């Protein structure tokens, strides 16, 4: 049974920083690529970042490049999203996700992810 539990969300002023964590259980964490997605009210879910199973490859949405950093610690079964220079338009529920297949490489395509966390709210005030 795969479970993903996000934490670290909250309220922050524009220009501030937050670090999200996603703790995974079930399966061998180090075998799977991971991703972060977000969904703002009234909008479709969008990709934020992805990281390969070993951590050597990362992808980012254009809207967060240079501001967000995805990383993982396979010894702790945890993936992180460091968010800097936050903007009001970053306000959303953030979800982590695990790809369904083993070691396939990074992708920002949400349909490639089989398991999702419950989400954590990030609110950026102007």
Helices and strands in order:
Elements: E1 3-7, E2 10-13, E3 18-25, E4 34-39, E5 46-51, E6 58-60, E7 68-73, E8 78-83, E9 92-99, E10 113-116, E11 120-125
Parallel strand pairs: 2-11
Antiparallel strand pairs: 1-3, 3-8, 4-5, 4-9, 5-6, 7-8, 9-10, 9-11
Summarize the structure.
The chain is mainly beta and 126 residues long.
Q: How would you describe the overall organization of this protein?
A:
- By secondary structure, the chain is mostly beta strands.
- It is built from no helices and eleven strands.
- It has strands at 3-7, 10-13, 18-25, 34-39, 46-51, 58-60, 68-73, 78-83, 92-99, 113-116, 120-125.
- Strands 2, 4, 5, 6, 9, 10 and 11 form a seven-stranded mixed sheet that branches. It has a four-stranded antiparallel sheet with strand order 1-3-8-7, with no helix packed on it.
Shape: globular
Q: What kind of sheet is the major sheet?
A: 7 strands, mixed
Report the end-to-end length measured between terminal Cα atoms.
Answer: 40 Å
Beta content comes to over 45%
Q: Give the averaged pLDDT, no decimals.
A: 97
Q: How many H/I helices?
A: 0
- Report helical residue fraction: under 10%
The gyration radius over C-alpha positions equals: 13 Å
